[in-house]
Amino acid sequence: MGGYYGLVFLVVFTLIPARCDESCGGRDGRAGEAGAPGRDGYPGAKGEEGETAVMLEGPVDEVVLRRLKGEAGGRGQQGGMGPKGYQGHLGAAGQPGEPGRPGVEGKGIISGGQGAQMARSAFSAIRTHNSYPGFGQPITYGPAVVNTPEGDDKDFNEATGHFTCRVPGVYYFTFHSMAKVSMCLNIASQALTNSLGFCDYNRNTDQVLSGGVVLQLTAGQKVWLESFRDQQRPDEFRDSRDKQIIFSGFLLF
Length: 253
Fold this sequence. Notes:
Elements (H helix, E strand, L loop, with lengths): L61 H6 L54 E8 L16 E3 L7 E2 L4 E3 L4 E11 L3 E7 L6 E5 L6 E11 L4 E6 L6 H4 L5 E9 L2
């Protein structure tokens, strides 16, 4: 009988642990990547109030001193003035204020506090006479046509021919004369360095002479009119016909 005879091979593998030396060690792994930032945590609870600071005897740590509140120090010296700031814009106009109270009553310009209505001065006097006025002497007059103020306080004296300044100020003085002969007249005053003279030598008709001046006077200064000798003929001084002279003056301001 025939048959097949197989060969059976039994192979046995035995795993024997191998021995590793230093050359077969593994490599370290690399570090991982940083993660995303985490969210903020919830606010913590309020802490308890600390104890009141107590002044200790002996040396104290500087850190502790900084934390302690000290007493207020003295006022320091004033610093220098800073630079001037820029000018601001002009503001809108304000509302009109209320009317003020009436002021005290004013006084006149006369010393002594007299009323302003007394600050007046004016005169006009006329001399009608047949004699020639004396040389270098104030001409006198009859009763004045105008002499303000009147009474004992009048500024012009007809008997002496002097105007005496009572109210300091600026005055205007003028004169007019009419005669049959030549005549020379001066406006004289303590306010003038020299007398102010006027003459008329026209012998063919009635002689009309006039002159005027503005003077700044102080209290007490005088102004008057006087005749002076110049080119008149000797027979003119003996003339007996009427001669008229008008002297006037008044306060301007």
